[in-house]
Amino acid sequence: MSQEQGLTPRAQDFSAWYNEAVMRAELADYSPVRGCMVIRPNGYAIWELMQGALDGMFKETGHRNAYFPLFIPQSFLAKEAEHVAGFAPEVAVVTRAGGKELEEPLVVRPTSETIIYASFAKWIQSYRDLPLLLNQWCNIVRWEMRTRLFLRTTEFLWQEGHTAHADEADAMRETRQMLGVYRRFAEEWMAMPVLTGVKTDTEKFAGAVRTYAVEALMQDNKSIQAGTSHHLGQNFSKAFGVQFQTAAGGLDYVWNTSWGVSTRMVGGLVMTHGDDVGIVCPPKLAPTQVVVVPIYRSDEERAAVGQVAERAVRTLKAEGLRVELDAREGMKPGAKYYEWEGRGVPLRLEVGPKDVAKGQVFAARRTGGKAPIALDGLVPGVRAMLEDIQAGLFRAALQRREANSRRNVTKDELIAMMDGPGGFAYGGFCGALECEEGIKDATKATIRVLPDEEFRSPSPPAQCVWCGAPSVSEAVWAKAY
Fold it and tell me: Which domains are present in the chain?
């Protein structure tokens, strides 16, 4: 995409803008395999930073990484009826390999509960083996009909945590703990404010007793499910015979949880912070946090400016910052700025002859604003700017979410909101499937969560927004990806 073309404005066509922004930043490309994507180095670098942050959080909470096979015997999925029914339309199956028909077809991993709990049945014998806390980083295949880069593809990357516990209380503690980990990651690293809460039975994970989720509002006022944590009860342990000897000497089935986030988070980052120029990376997840651009007109200026620019890069790298020097010849500074802005680099440091004379660099924020930084205070100055950019992105996203959330909506307001601008609509819910499906049919909006207490309205609605019956819970509706 040329500089002259620019991107489709978000207000004109958000979907087109998203695809163009992803392509311009070279995050991903389309694959020859229908529905799949190629994650390019720029996009994979963001995913690696996400992995690193989350992996550290998982290990801090006592989890260890493992790896389980990509192929799952088809009979495994059939052992948990709700699970197989939920995934049947999306499953890819291998029936022939090695030049002959397989005795039993193999499912290409849509999620790993079944094959992991078959191993748990071998490893867990006693209460002393519990809790068992595992995570794996892997790829997943779900046959999607309508795909979009990062947001919904046939194959994607994710992590899936799987744990086994001696009692339900410990399993519930784990489920809520990991929901909190996801919220902390989304808000502290992605600068993306989220709601947390429980899914309705129609929206929960197939085979779960209860599903909790983190939901974020994108700039087009659609919601993205940014992570889920599932309390699986004893459904899978009974299906796979995962039993243990209790401390009292009896025999019981373990209580399981599973939880996961995927490369969809990269798409969420783009849609939360991007502008009409392109993507904007929060500094904590920016593959390049700072780019240094020397500016000169003569060979004499180039030598002096280049020396200062290189010193600045060395100084910042020595402090652990991710820095690039753009000293490419035959390219105007403006063209360089345009390229780095499209990649979402949070901070650009310009170094010209006047800056050399003043012992400074000139800092331009991707989010707007310029200011000089003295070379003798370069590291603290850059760190302060990056921290301010990170915090500013979160504040802006939170303000945007709240400005596009409406509480205690009426039936007519809910319909008008979903037919029009969208956003988070809070209202009473009677718990009836007929009302949930009626709203979905009429508005294409779904209940994203029954919100946790801190996100509920100060005065919870007393009546169902759809039928007027007494409300059993407040719900948050939105159209979603």
Answer: 14-273 (3.30.930.10), 283-396 (3.40.50.800), 405-478 (3.30.110.30)
Copy the structure tokens of residue 300. Answer: 């004499």
Give the C-alpha separation, 401 to 328, whole Å.
40
Tell me the C-alpha distance between 219 and 214, whole Å: 17
DSSP 284: G
Arithmetic mean of pLDDT, 183-195 = 98
How far is it, in rounded angstroms, from Cα 309 to Cα 355? 10
Apex 12 CA angle, 9 and 16, nearest 5: 70
Which stretch of DSSP H or E encloses residue 338?
A: helix 333-342
**Which residue reads 């942050």 in tokens?**
53
Token readout for 37 is 């994507």
pTM of the model as a whole: 0.96
pLDDT of residue 146: 81
Q: Which residues contact 67 (CB under 8 A, 6 or more apart)?
A: 136, 137, 138
Q: List Cβ<8 Å contacts ≥24 apart for 84-88.
A: 85/206, 86/205, 86/206, 86/207, 87/111, 87/142, 87/206
Beta bridge partners of 159: 137, 261
Task: Please write the tens of the pLDDT for every residue from 422-459.
Answer: 999 999 999 999 999 999 999 999 999 999 999 999 99
pLDDT tens digits for 251-309? 999 999 999 999 999 999 999 999 999 999 999 999 999 999 999 999 999 999 999 99
Task: Report which secondary-structure segment, H or E, holds 312.
Answer: helix 299-318
Per residue in 139-150, pLDDT (tens digit) is: 999 988 788 999
Q: How far apart, in whole angstroms, are the C-alpha atoms of residue 235 and residue 137?
A: 24
Element of type H or E holding 124: none
Tokens of 198: 């429980």
By three-state DSSP, how is residue 58 classified?
Answer: helix
